[in-house]
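Handoff note, outgoing to incoming analyst
You'll be picking up this chain. Sequence as last confirmed:
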Amino acid sequence: MRLVAALLIVIGTSLPAMAGDGFNIVIPGRTGVPIIINGIDASYAVIEGDRGLSRGIHVQPTVYGGRYVDPVPNVGHYYPSAGRQPGYGRLEIEPPKNRKLPKPAESYHESWSAASPPPAPQEVVPFDPPAVIVAPPDIRRR
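Most recent structure output, in case you need it:
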């Protein structure tokens, strides 16, 4: 019975230790931004191997299901020394020297500023007010 209990403890403690060495599926954190590992787009692919900053050993991961990404994409280059026009771009036409020039634009100036509103008017209180203030009589009461 003790042997079975010891065997179960050994199996139970060794399985979590082996869980970190399995395979992983790569899911990009941002749409449209690929995850490139050794020239292979590993987005939504399965990778296997030790990697990360917390590991003491760095082994190149194996990527299953990724697609190759050309590090230098083959785009058409334009070399002016070849003497040919580029296949795309702006078509620039030089105007003749003796053309009629348009009239010059009128001058334009604009400015902005900010200021605080003027202070609200306050009632003037005398320095030595009377002890009793007499209100005018109400004419409607008579």
